[in-house]
Amino acid sequence: NLNLFINFDLFIFHFSGICKLKNLFELNLRGNKFEGHLPRCFNNLTHLKVLDMSSNQLSGILPSVIANLTSLEYLALYDNKFKGRLFSFCSLANLSKLEVFQLSMEADLLQVKIENCLPTFQLKVLSLPNCNLGVIPNFLLHQFNLKYLDLSHNKLAGNFPTWLLENNTKLEVLYLTNNSFSGFQLTSAQHGLISLDISSNNFTGKLPQNMGTVLSKLDCMNISKNSFEGNIPSSIGKMQGLRLLDVSSNKFAGELSQSPVTNCFSLEWLQLSNNNFDGQIFPNYVNLTRLLFLYLDNNHFSGKIKDGLLRSSELMVLDISNNHLSGHIPSWMGNFSNLYILSMSKNLLEGNIPVQFNNLAILQILDISENNLSGSMISTLNLSSVEHLYLQSNALGGSIPNTIFRGSALETLDLRDNYFFGRIPHQINEHSNLRALLLRGNYLQGPIPHQLCQLRKLSIMDLSHNRLNGSIPACITNLLFWKVGSRYLSGFVMVVMDLGVADIRNYYNSTVQLWLDGIDGRSLGTQVEVNFMTKNRYESYKGVILDYMAGLDLSSNELTGDIPSEICDLQNIHGLNLSHNFLSGYIPESFSNLKMIESLDLSHNKLSGQIPPQLTELHSLSKFDVSYNNLSGPIPDKEQFSTFDESSYRGNLHLCGPPINKSCTNLLELLETSSKGAEDESAVDMVAFYWSFVASCVTVMLGLLAILWVNPYWRRLWFYFIEECIDLCYYWLFKYVFYW
User: Fold this and answer.
1) Of 589, 360, 329, 583, nearest to 472 (Cα)?
2) 259-300 pLDDT, tens per residue?
3) CATH at residue 594
4) Staple 222 to which of 197, 387, 462, 702, CB 3.0 to 4.6 Å?
5) How many C-beta atoms surround the C-beta of residue 664 within 10 A?
6) Buried b / exposed e across 135-161, counting CB within 10 Å, b at 16+?
7) Rounded (10°) angle between helices 712-733 and 664-710
8) For residue 334, with 0-12 CB atoms within 10 Å meaning exposed, 13-18 middle and 19 or more buried, which class applies?
9) Considering its fold, how many domains does the chain have in total?
């Protein structure tokens, strides 16, 4: 028994030593870096019962030596790089003891050949995903002991193969996902199938009315991403053991109050997303006490949210986004103490966030964006556990509570397009994990607080379209070095299937649970998303892409002063927008250090001087805009700058170069002429100033004399004032000059 599973140092291991172990009965080399071909000396391992070479880098044609290992019971070759001639199942015909066979390929490296041969084995597990089958292998007509069958991603077409269920009465797991099956019918005979996945096919029409009767023992059913329509059959309610039901991305319709799924009391995962369901969401109480994951997004549900889900107190994920729900957010949602994700975006909800949400102690994602929420954010609202908070596109107002920035858990804060005013809070937790700060489109005032520089993990910041003033803090270079992470709920990491090599039965029994454990990790990982404007359009970043995005948008404010040269240290930044401000000074030459930048917008400011020719070193730059400034001199026209047109430079009268069809020679002559004219005009202005000053003095004196001549009263007061001045001068001279 030799087990070398996932030892990444074994790429230098030599097979010759293994071949000498003639009495070896189990060999597990899965998850290493073996390359090349399997050696022919494996013929010597005549007692071998288990061979697992999966997840390596083996190449070439599938080895013929396997055909001589007649004692084999378990053979796993999936996730390698075999290629060359066709693989034939007939090469395994002599392996009469074989019970488990697994093979899958990447891309189109290998074509599995379908031949009319009768293997001597009776398989229990057959896994052939991504094998370019085209048709179901004929030898399966003669297999009667299958418990697990995976034919996913094989371009199979035709009707659902009901004969597989008829021939294999012990079949528990059937995966046919991502094929081209189009017709779905069932026989009347009951079957003990536990897990069925026919997602991503071309099935149309209605589900068979007897589905819940024929497949009454189903534990997991995934029929998503097809074109099924109509109502869900009433017989589905007879699946008392059903734990996972995914009918998303079809054309199902009807109301939940009449849906048979409310009778599936064992449900833990219910996904009805992307259908045409309507009416209210569970208007009556439902006894789904085990429900953990509920996805009702992208349907046509309407009306107020009733309290039908009150008994589903174990909910961990609730997604009712993108419907037509109205009214206030019910306070009883605060009773879901196990809730990790709550998404109610893109509805017509109004009012404010219930203070009962303080009870959601482990909530990590809260998305109530794109509704009609109003009022100010309650300062007593404690969302200290929330990592991603989305409240954008509502009508929330008032000042941003200081408590939002005091916690350390928050990673994404999106308050864009609301009515917040006042200053950006400056009470920042120095241990904050905030990575995306989006405050665009509010009425925030005052300078950008220097305390934001404490957000050392921040990589996307959008403060545009506010009324911020003052200069850009030089310490802003402390930001944007960390990348926005898509780290997510650690408790939902996908469980990797360990096929095992010793106990096949344990694998059978755990298959369904592994599906449940794994599918939530895949789904939840898609929730974290950040929208950021670059290249004049909003881009959505999520998953792995989000890890590599860094951007800063301070546009459409009232910022003044020079562009801090320290910004040039933000070498990981991809988008920088400082447009529509009152920035002055020069464009820093050190902008050439921003090697990763793709979009640079400095338009509508008061920048002067030349466009630094060093910017041609920015090879990733695809959007550049310095229009409507006071720039002058030649425009760089090499590298990326040869792709920018006149719109990038308009509104700068003293720029020249091919992009704007203006000769730099003529421009220099014009500038010299303008300079001389300015000097002459300056001299004339001084002469005019002197004459106008004398004329003004004479006019004032004549006006004063005319008033004294006409009005005797003012004349007496004037002479009295002159007399007082003379007496005061005489007194001062006598006391301080002549007396000494």
Assistant:
1) 583
2) 888 889 999 999 999 999 999 999 888 999 999 999 999 999
3) 3.80.10.10
4) 197
5) 13
6) ebbebbeebeebbbbbbbbbebeeebb
7) 100
8) middle
9) 2
